[in-house]
Prior knowledge:
Layout: E1 3-7, E2 10-13, E3 18-25, E4 33-39, E5 49-54, E6 61-63, E7 71-76, E8 81-86, E9 95-102, E10 115-118, E11 122-127
Parallel strand pairs: 2-11
Antiparallel strand pairs: 1-3, 3-8, 4-5, 4-9, 5-6, 7-8, 9-10, 9-11
Amino acid sequence: QVRLVESGGGLVQAGGSLRLSCTASGLTFRSYAMGWFRQAPGKERAQREFVTGINWSGGSTDYADSMKGRFTISRDNAKNTVYLQMNSLKPEDTAVYYCAASSPPWTVVREERSYAYWGQGTQVTVSS
C-alpha cells in the first residue's frame, strides 16, 4: 500500500517561512519524480496548481513562476522524503499543499494526470 504523508503545515505571518515534508512508503522512492501541488480556498480539486517538482536524483527541478526564488524543493532518497522550503510567504500562498509521485522518474511534469500517488494534504495559512 502506497502512502504519502505530508507534514509541516501551519499558520505563519506574511514574510515568514515554513518547511513541508512528505514521506513515502510502499513504493521504491527513487523510482519516482515528486511534485508539490496546492489547492487554494474556494478552488475545486481539479483546479489544483502545480507548485514545483523534482526528479529522482534531485538533478532536475521545475517551479511555477510565482514560486521561483521563494520556494525550494529537495529530496532525501535515503529517508524517502521530499521537502518544500517556503520563504517570503504571502497570503496568496494560503492553500492545502499536496505531494505526489509520478513516473518516469527522470523527468519533472506539471500535469496532475501524470501523478499516480497523492498525499492527503497539509494546510498552509499565511496571515497578512
